[in-house]
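Board notes (copied after class):
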Amino acid sequence: MDNKIVREKFAELFGTAGDLYFSPGRVNLIGEHTDYNGGFVLPGAIDKGMLAEIKPNGKNIIRAFAVDLNEYSEFGMNEEDAPKESWARYIFGVVREIIKRGGKVEGFDTAFSGDVPLGAGLSSSAALESTFAFALNEIFNLGIDKFELAKIGQATEHNYCGVKCGIMDQFASVFGKEGHLIRLDCRSLEYEYVPFDPKGYKVVLIDSVVKHELASSAYNKRRESCEAVVAAIKKRHPEVELLRDADMKMLDEVKNEVSAEDYRRAEYVIEEIQRLLDACDALEKGDYKTVGEKMYGTHYGMSKLYEVSCEELDYLNDVARECGVTGSRVMGGGFGGCTINLVPEDKYDNFITTAVKGFTQKFGKEPKVYPVKIGAGSRKL
């Protein structure tokens, strides 16, 4: 991350220097569509993210410059002062959420830039929210704990950006730890660090540069399927609140009472929650072969049972298998976006060349390649 550009822009605009803060984007190794079913996720912070220079300005306004977009915005801190630029609403939202919690924020100047690609499913928005939540907490001595910082980011998405997201992205950004993934229990929000130091492997994302329009309505339908199955199981097992509480035996008991589609959706989720736990056991032993098999299992489930993959992602997954990649799967909600791949170093170059060339020939556009390393969470530089 090149902080020189941010430094120069800040000095040019505001004639002074502030402090630099950074928050990372994230990947999720395994555990997809498990969050709203009360299961687990396994994210890790990455070495790409959002960098901001910030300094109090003694005024009651925020003056902000988005370096990558070359856009400037100026706004107050009351509810009616909401800026019109969508990127500025993330900063405004964080400020409002801190104020709602009784924190005293004063006006400040900022310039920021990111090397988390927008729209690649690496949570650039969470990185931006975490950067400002972390920085303002420190600059104004607000004494907010890390947990609450993640919740401030999530509430910003809900209340100011119109996205009803879970907590995973902000959590990973704030709590990231080098050489570790975070096993987060989406129901209790308890978490533990799981070692992830794959010697002899590289982690790389291949972005299909596809975004399918049906994503949000299809996502809601998947949630409804899960809820329908829980309602059917609950009649026999009143203790079952979420699919997290169910097992395949319970699901099979209601097979004739739910649609075939709803059955498949629930089967995927129940299996995925178990796959994640198996992957964590394998990581504790440094057994990356098993981790890779679980990743392929997730892709199969998302493609055939949950049906949230697409032709482009299935193609990238097939190429990974043919090239001897240890593990590969669609990452994120599906219907486009990236595959995440755990690749032996000696097979890396061939895999990237083969995937890019084959994909471009087949689909007429070139996929983007993002090598990532697992890094630390929000911090002052």
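Comment from the instructor: The two ends are 11 Å apart (CA to CA). The longest helix spans residues 260-284.
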